[in-house]
Amino acid sequence: MPRFSANLGFLYPELPFLDRLEAAACDGFRGIECLFPYDVPAAQLRARAGANGLDVVLINAPPGDWAAGERGLASLSDREPEFRGSITRALAYAHEVGAPRVHVLAGLLDARADRAAAVERFEVRLRWAAEQAAQAGITLMIEPINPHDMPGYLLQRQDEAHAIVERVASASLKVQMDLYHCARVEGDVVEQVRRWLPTGQVGHFQIAGAPDRHEPDIGTLDWRGSLAAIDQIAAATGWDGWVGCEYRPLRGAVPGGTSRGLGWMETG
Fold it and tell me: What is the total count of domains within the chain?
């Protein structure tokens, strides 16, 4: 089985953020990932992760004003200074907590906007950001996100993301392949894994059941086939990344709800 990381923005929702690390460790996770951990001092997150034997494997760069509906700055016009500031902040935080990956959100495309211009801005900014990431020894991620969950998000398909990575042409930029989003947009996730993982451009996976984003074994996602394909290709290529558990526990924010839903990890 692949290595699983607990996404603490989704799992153990009944607990305060830092207490989720101990819960994840008790459930057998050896890695954790976070959406936007910046309200927690990096030293505290690093210490709590170390005390629980956990690697921080991924964080997101600041996305702009999330509460106001922003979903990233990387492709937005007239936001370059804020974008650069978000990357600088993310790389510094990731370095302090030992996270080797930072997800950079592309942003929402206004219905009246020029898509080609937005993609061009995205690539120009990613080239700069990848240079900064390379100096810090960190890899940046870009992720296709389905339009049902995030209408208007610039990047929605695997082929779009991989084409951008090819054009940017930096070893410090890879694709974050979320099997839930992939299933909602492109269907056959096993085929998508077999197509894209051998390219060397996939840096991280995430998983959730489709269509309701609960545990992977709830719904239509071929999670067993997907994990088997990851294992097979990893054995052949040496890929050694993580699969992030980014789903909403079906039992919700009740004590032990996340833990009781982890049986799929044992039966896969």
Answer: 1
